[in-house]
Amino acid sequence: MHSVRTWFGIFSVDDGTIHSCDLYQKDVKSLAGRLQEIPEVLECNEVCGIDIRSLAKDWGFIASENEYDELFRQVNIEHAMMQVTASGSDEHILIRFIDALDDLDKNTNALSERLKELYDLHFPELRLKGEPLARFISKYGVRNNISNWKIEDEKILERARNSSGMELPKPWGTRVTELATTVAGLYDNKNRISLDIEEYMNENLPNLSAVAGAHIGARLLGIVGSSKKLASMPSSTIQVLGAEKALFKHLRGNATSPKHGVIFQHPLVKESPWWLRGKIARALAAKISIAVRIDYYSGTFDEDIAKDLYRKVDELHKKYPKPRRKRK
C-alpha cells in the first residue's frame, strides 16, 4: 500500500484501488500552507485513473464541481500570495540595499564633483575632494567666515586668507554650504548601509563573508538572486559572475575568455601580479562555492576554509614568482 497526495487530501492506494482518504481541513489558508510545503501535489490530476475533481466530490470534500473550482481558485490565489510574501526574504532586502548603495555611489560621486567645481572657484588652494571636502564645507562654509574657523592647521587658514578664488555672493555661498551638507549626509547614509550589509553577511553568511569579504559576497548574491542559487552554481560560473559582457564577447569569438568577474575586487586577486590573477581567481571561486554551500545547508562557521584559501594563494606566489615564458 502507498499514499498519493493531492491538494485536498491523501489517498491510500493498494494494487490500483483506493482504500481510504485522509481529507484536509477545508480552510483556504490551511490548504494554501500545505501547498507551500509540497507544491508538487498540484501536478496530481488523477488517482488510480480517476479525476481528482470527481474524487473530491465522491469522498465528501465538496458538494459540487462548481464548489471545487471556486475553492481551488481561492487556494491557488492564497498560495501565490504566500509565495510573493516568502520571496520578500531578508536576502531580497539585502539585494535591494546593494542596489541602493550603488545608486548612492553614483549620486555622491556626481554631486561631489559638482561641489568641488563650485568650491574651487572660491577656494582652489584647499585641495580636498570627495567626502573630506563635503565635510569641510558643511562645517566651515565659505571664506567669508574665516574668523570663525576653529582649525588647528595654520596652513589652511593661511591659504584661505590669501586665496586667489573669487568671493561668493551670500545666496550662492549659502547654497554651496547646503549642497555640501546634503552630500555629507549621503556619505553618512552610504556608510551606514555599508556597515549594515557587513553585519548581515557576517551574521547570516559567515563563511562566504570570511572567504569573499562581506561586500563581494553580497554582490554575488545580488547578481544571482539568492544564496540558494549561488550554492547550486559550480565554481567556474561563480568565477566569472559580473563579467557577462566579456563572456558574451568571448562566445561570439570577439574576445578571450574572462578570468574573473566581481571577485577581481578581492585583494587576493586585485593586488596580485597579473600572471597569477587567473589562478587565484579560480582558487577563490572554489572556496566561495564551498563556503556558501556550508552557509546555506548547515549554517555553521568553518574557519579552515579561509585559512586553506590563503595557504593556497601563498603556494601559488611561491610556485610562480615570475610569469611563464611564452613558447615560440
Question: Could you characterize what this model shows?
Answer:
There is one protein chain. It contains 15 helices and 5 strands. It has 3 domains: 86 residues, Nucleotidyltransferase, domain 5 (2-Layer Sandwich); 108 residues, Orthogonal Bundle (Helix Hairpins), CATH 1.10.287.4070; 114 residues, Nop domain (Serum Albumin, Chain A, Domain 1). The N and C termini lie far apart (72 Å). Helix 1 packs across helix 3 and helix 14 runs antiparallel to helix 15. The strands form 2 sheets. Strands 1-2-3 form a 3-stranded antiparallel beta sheet, with no helix packed on it. Strand 1 and strand 2 form a beta hairpin. With 328 residues, the chain is mainly alpha-helical.
Structural class assignment: mainly alpha
Enumerate how many helices there are, as a single number: 15
Gyration radius over CA:
31 Å
Can you give the helix content as a percent range?
55-70%
How does the major sheet shape up? Answer: 3 strands, antiparallel
- Give the number of domains: 3
End-to-end gap: 72 Å
Strand order of the largest sheet: 1-2-3
CATH architecture designation of the largest domain: Orthogonal Bundle
Order of SSEs, N→C? EEEHEEHHHHHHHHHHHHHH
